[in-house]
């Protein structure tokens, strides 16, 4: 649907919509984190809060996981997402990166790009820029016809993301701006940085309007932003009203009344805002990122973010409080807010199918290759070599990120980077196997793009194992089919596939309880829900209703460690590790 073209500009003090001062009250919602059949529902709910815009990042690696294989269909249909925003009468802000951070795998950069360790990422390195140019041209083909001046919804496009926290290569920013403008983007371009002087200046460039990312100390942050952006509107491009979770840490919540007060302060100061996140959604499949500023910490599957619209689309207390605040400053649609509904509760017996992790044999390698050297999308690799020791010994290995060891097919320990456990005793035996899992690629700071898998040859008693190495890759998304096609197995011990069937009267959102399972992956009807891990804090996985159907449904899990319960329980409400404040 198109509406008459409008002009959107940056004036001396304000954003200008057809020449009139305009305040943006936006909310962030990342289309890859929401099932496409729920996009419209989430946009409508956001609109009920009084928002006039929706913002999304574009994740490059979601669209081009393999170089040259661009996909903008189905869950990747950015054009449709922007059109739905337009149909609901809202504006759109697009932040195509190419780097996005966002707690997303590799900060959005494809692994085929970062596998080239000679590239200088996020810089004017010509080889990096060549790839980025191709990407931006494709993304902008989608955005350009949807800009407000041609009757679409898009009012702003951001260049890079918090670049000042990473670098200050002005030639890089200049090139991103040039490519974006040449592709036909006519709306104002913005940058975002934390309101810290060197960051705001590092990410600055002529032609970019500075915005800030912050969630508290509003007055102080706006003052710093104003010093560095003396004219035009003030905008908090990421008003952090919640936070993300790492495996093994506590679940983050922020007090909704405090957040509402901060939002009020922001709006009272006349600033524009993008609430980060209005609806966080889910890191489906293997899309979760990780942090590492001294300790590697992978992200959980949920990206609920304690945001006003919960992961399953419910209106929360924070939503109501924010809506009341917005109503003081702008019109808010009238009407009842939908009340949360309990999801169906039932239990499904699971049938074991034995170890589904055979994978594809890539033959022998003199030295253990990294996952990056094995091709894009590799996240689970089996490395096997001859051990030939007649006594038990100690093995040390740099694994990224988690490895199950076996000697002559007997479990022989676990190495895990997140807690710094990189050595373990192993028994005597002939064949050593390491099954190495990548548990999320770092999305922030200097470790973006670091190689994964086995890094160098493991040491036994201080000596590098000589190899050769037999290497097998396991296609994790493909494991659903492996489990569904496999023959039943009598019992479960160690890595296993399990499957089951259940019937529903109609499609329904579900909450899959993972408490009785160790570490692995889960699917419903082939839809890859993501990872689960006993470590928590997340205890349930969100199953979006459109992934289910009336009649028979299938569930499959791949357990990498050890399960204590071979059934699947579906619960009424999510459990993300909530704490009472
Ligand atoms: C920064 C980034 C976002 C996100 C938030 C934290 O502001 O710009 O992409 O990572 O931090 O959620």
Automatic annotation (TrEMBL):
<dbReference type="InterPro" id="IPR001944">
    <property type="entry name" value="Glycoside_Hdrlase_35"/>
</dbReference>
<dbReference type="InterPro" id="IPR031330">
    <property type="entry name" value="Gly_Hdrlase_35_cat"/>
</dbReference>
<dbReference type="InterPro" id="IPR048913">
    <property type="entry name" value="BetaGal_gal-bd"/>
</dbReference>
<dbReference type="InterPro" id="IPR026283">
    <property type="entry name" value="B-gal_1-like"/>
</dbReference>
<dbReference type="Pfam" id="PF21317">
    <property type="entry name" value="BetaGal_ABD_1"/>
</dbReference>
<dbReference type="Pfam" id="PF21467">
    <property type="entry name" value="BetaGal_gal-bd"/>
</dbReference>
<dbReference type="InterPro" id="IPR008979">
    <property type="entry name" value="Galactose-bd-like_sf"/>
</dbReference>
<feature type="domain" description="Beta-galactosidase 1-like first all-beta">
    <location>
        <begin position="368"/>
        <end position="465"/>
    </location>
</feature>
<dbReference type="InterPro" id="IPR017853">
    <property type="entry name" value="GH"/>
</dbReference>
<feature type="domain" description="Beta-galactosidase galactose-binding">
    <location>
        <begin position="499"/>
        <end position="553"/>
    </location>
</feature>
<dbReference type="InterPro" id="IPR048912">
    <property type="entry name" value="BetaGal1-like_ABD1"/>
</dbReference>
<feature type="domain" description="Glycoside hydrolase 35 catalytic">
    <location>
        <begin position="15"/>
        <end position="328"/>
    </location>
</feature>
<comment type="similarity">
    <text>Belongs to the glycosyl hydrolase 35 family.</text>
</comment>
<keyword id="KW-0326">Glycosidase</keyword>
<protein>
    <submittedName>
        <fullName>Beta-galactosidase</fullName>
    </submittedName>
</protein>
<dbReference type="Pfam" id="PF01301">
    <property type="entry name" value="Glyco_hydro_35"/>
</dbReference>
<keyword id="KW-0378">Hydrolase</keyword>
């Amino acid at each position: 649907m198109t509406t008459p073209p409008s002009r959107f500009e940056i004036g001396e003090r304000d954003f200008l919509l057809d020449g009139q001062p305009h305040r943006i009250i936006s909310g962030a919602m990342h289309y890859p984190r929401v099932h496409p059949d729920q996009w419209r529902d989430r946009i409508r709910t956001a609109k009920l809060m009084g928002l006039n815009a929706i913002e999304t990042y574009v994740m490059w690696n979601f669209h081009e996981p393999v170089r040259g294989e661009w996909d903008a269909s189905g869950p990747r249909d950015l054009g449709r997402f922007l059109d739905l925003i337009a149909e609901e009468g809202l504006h759109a802000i697009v932040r195509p990166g190419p780097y996005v951070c966002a707690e997303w795998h590799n900060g959005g950069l494809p692994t085929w790009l970062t596998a080239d360790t000679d590239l200088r990422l996020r810089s004017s390195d010509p080889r990096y820029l060549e790839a980025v140019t191709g990407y931006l041209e494709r993304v902008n083909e989608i955005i350009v016809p949807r800009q407000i001046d041609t009757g679409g919804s898009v009012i702003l496009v951001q260049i890079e993301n918090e670049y000042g926290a990473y670098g200050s290569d002005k030639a890089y920013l200049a090139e991103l701006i040039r490519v974006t403008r040449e592709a036909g983007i006519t709306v104002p371009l913005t940058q975002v940085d934390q309101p810290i002087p060197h960051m705001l200046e590092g990410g600055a460039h002529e032609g970019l309007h500075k915005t800030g990312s912050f969630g508290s100390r509003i007055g102080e942050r706006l003052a710093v932003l104003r010093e560095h952006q003396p004219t035009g509107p003030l905008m908090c491009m990421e008003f952090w009203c919640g936070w993300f979770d790492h495996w093994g840490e506590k679940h983050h919540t922020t007090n909704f009344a405090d957040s509402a007060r901060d939002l009020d302060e922001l709006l009272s100061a006349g600033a524009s805002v993008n609430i980060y996140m209005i609806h966080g959604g889910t890191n489906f499949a293997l899309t979760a990122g990780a942090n590492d500023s001294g300790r590697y910490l992978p992200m959980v599957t949920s990206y609920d973010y304690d945001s006003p619209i919960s992961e399953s689309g419910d209106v929360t207390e924070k939503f109501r409080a924010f809506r009341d605040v917005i109503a003081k400053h702008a019109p808010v649609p009238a009407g009842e807010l939908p009340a949360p509904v309990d999801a169906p509760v039932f239990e499904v017996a699971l049938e074991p199918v034995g170890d589904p992790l055979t994978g594809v044999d890539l033959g022998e390698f003199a030295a253990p290759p990294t996952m990056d050297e094995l091709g894009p999308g590799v996240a689970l690799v089996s490395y096997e070599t001859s051990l030939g020791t007649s006594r038990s010994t100690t093995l040390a290995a740099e694994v990224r990120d988690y490895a199950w060891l076996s000697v002559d097919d007997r479990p022989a320990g676990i190495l895990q980077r997140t807690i710094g456990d990189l050595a373990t005793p192993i028994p005597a035996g002939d064949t050593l196997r390491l099954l190495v899992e990548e548990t999320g690629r770092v999305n922030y700071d200097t470790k973006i793009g670091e190689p994964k898998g086995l890094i160098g040859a493991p040491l036994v008693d201080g000596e590098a194992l000589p190899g050769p190495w037999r290497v097998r890759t396991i296609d994790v998304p493909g494991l659903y089919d492996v489990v569904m096609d496999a023959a039943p197995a009598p019992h479960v011990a160690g890595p296993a596939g399990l499957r089951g069937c259940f019937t529903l009267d109609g499609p329904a959102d579900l909450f899959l309880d993972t408490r009785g399972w160790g570490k692995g992956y889960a699917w419903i009807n082939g839809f890859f829900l993501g990872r689960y891990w006993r470590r928590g804090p997340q205890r349930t996985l969100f199953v979006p209703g459109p992934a289910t159907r009336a009649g028979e449904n299938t569930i499959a899990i791949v357990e990498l460690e050890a399960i204590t319960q071979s059934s699947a329980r579906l619960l009424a409400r999510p459990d993300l590790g909530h704490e009472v404040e």
